[in-house]
Amino acid sequence: MFPMENIGRTLLLIGGIIAFSGVIIIVLGRFGLGRLPGDILISRENLTVFFPITTMIVISIVLTIIFNLIRRF
Q: I need a labelling partner for 50 at 20 to 30 A (CA). Which of 4, 14, 37, 43 fits?
């Protein structure tokens, strides 16, 4: 069994990653990410559906480049 100290550290690490991800999403949202041409927004009376297709493609390309650069070094 894991000691409680290790479980506590793991939970703090996961919480930190979630908080950091939230800050990144807020910052990127202010730069217009999520409202790119190609992102589909369907609004009806009682329903709103959002498909961020272009945003996900851009994020995928950027992360692929970053991870490839990290892997080479």
A: 14
